[in-house]
Amino acid sequence: VERARELGIDVPSYCQNSLKRGVAALEGVGPSGNTVPHDGSGYPEGSGPSNQRVAFNCLRGKEVDDILEEFRDVLEIDRDLADRTVEQHLRNIRQFLEFVDGPPSEIDKTDMRDWLREWKENYAESAYANKVKSLRVFFDDYLGSDMAKSLSMPQPRKNSKNPPSPEAIRKLYEAFDTLRDETSLLLFATTGLRRNELYHLTRDEVDLDKRMITPNKDSRTKKTYVTFYNEEAERHLEKYLDESEIQEEIFPIRARSANRIYRKYSKEAGVETITPQDLRVWFSEEMKKLGVSGEYIDAFCGRLPRSVRARHYTDYSEERLKEVYERAGIKVLG
Question: Which CATH code, of 3.90.550.10, 1.10.443.10, 2.30.40.10, 3.40.50.150, is assigned to 166-328?
Fold first, then answer.
């Protein structure tokens, strides 16, 4: 026991987890209701203290597609997650299982660390955090294991960067060589939408007559609100919709790809990198300069107060928000 403590092992937690595995093995039932053979030692067969890998017998003999179908049931039924979130977790876990060098039934922490290292070293923190979330759900809720419990989520860093200048935004606009990217820039700068909200925007979430957007309109898990866009964005959006064959999402590109596009053309424009998040910050600052109160800026950015009392003192009706927005008269291109 003392030696285990010297090595940094949480002895009570370790013993508790070992007991849980032993009881499950002796009862003959593993995660997801699968029968787990045991060797009489109190450990699932092949997972005793002499083994470095934990044997997930419930995965033995299963193909990746079979595992993902069972995992889908956990996400959709047990967790009742939104369709988009379900697909995201499935995509991440498929990547992980295909990365593992060996059968899925013998996954260990080294596999997790090696896979996450690729994301930590080569991608944004948000992408890395996304992978950690999926691993936690997969191990905790599907496999019934605490193997991913110790994985830490990266803490968001406060953005100390100043919003871009109007001149820099116009230079970026001029550097873009597609109507799609010009339109996205103007929408980011005049709506306050988050990156994922714009790139998952569907045709029925846009009211062209009112120049109004209702992001997350059909979501069961995310807050719905309304925001608006100006005449500059209106002209671009209507032309883009006329010239494009829209299936579901208006801008059918992945959010991470969009960031690369913005970085590339910022460089070509000779300005410091401008991201969709920077344009959202610029929108908030510009609306403040135009005399819009913080309560309404928050509303346009989807930060509505949760309390009934707070809503009572400010009129957040669609008509009032439209009036406040139009009075501000925000411009990007001038």
Answer: 1.10.443.10
